[in-house]
Amino acid sequence: MQLAVKPKTEISLRVRAMRYLARREYSRHELLHKLRPYLQEGDDLEAVLDDLERRNWLSDTRAAEQLLRLSRTRFGTQRIVHELRQKGIAESLINAAVPALREDELTMAREVWLKKFGSPPQDMKEKARQVRFLQSRGFSMDVIFKLLRMDEEAA
After folding, report:
1. Is residue 5 domain-resident?
2. Is the dihedral of CA 146, 108, 60, 37 positive or negative?
3. Which tens digit of pLDDT belongs to each residue from 70-110?
4. Strand (E) or helix (H) holding 15
5. Contact 115, 53 (CB under 8 A)
6. What are the angstrom distances between the C-alpha of 60 and each of 7, 21, 30, 75, 141?
7. Residue 39 falls within a domain, yes or no?
8. Within-domain flag for 41
């Protein structure tokens, strides 16, 4: 007995978008780029995205908040702002988030530094290594030098 093979059905853009959004929040810009390779003749991607926004299933604000929650404990303001811009988040949302990020930046830098190093640098080579590490995490030089000065004074 031979089984009939069902033809593979194409998943609509809306279903594909909802599957992505079920996993995590995406910005409109991110979702547009994720769905673009699946466009077929007659598809209106902008209309799908507009509908998802109208139903409040797609939200740049929520995508930004999620990124802030996840990144805040590991990265500095500069890196988080860069990531938000890469994801196509509006400048107004980024500017609204920056003051809160800057307020906690020294505390976050200290936690990242403690987790990675835990003790003040013993020489200039080690200090340069720690500075480079914190810079790569997106912390500003002002915050880095405040942090290292505080720990040198505590030692």
Report:
1. no
2. positive
3. 999 899 999 999 999 999 999 999 999 999 999 999 999 99
4. helix 13-23
5. no
6. 37, 12, 10, 20, 30
7. yes
8. yes
Q: Could you please report the per-residue DSSP string of 17-71?
A: HHHHHHHS---HHHHHHHHGGG--TT--HHHHHHHHHHTTSS-HHHHHHHHHHHH
Which residues span the domain enclosing 35? 10-58
Task: Please state at what angle helix 141-154 crosses helix 91-116, rounded to 10 degrees.
Answer: 30
CATH of the domain at 48: 1.10.10
Number of domains in the chain: 1
Q: How confident is the model at residue 42 (pLDDT cuts 50, 70, 90)?
A: confident
Please give the radius of gyration of the chain, using alpha carbons only, rounded to the nearest integer.
Answer: 22
Does the residue 33 lie in any domain? yes
Q: 154, 136 in Cβ contact below 8 A? A: no
137 contacts 79 by C-beta, under 8 angstroms: yes
Q: What are phi and psi of 83, to 5 degrees?
A: -65, -40
Contact 131, 144 (CB under 8 A): yes
Residue labelled with tokens 């990020």: 101
The single residue listed with the structure tokens 């996840």 is: 70
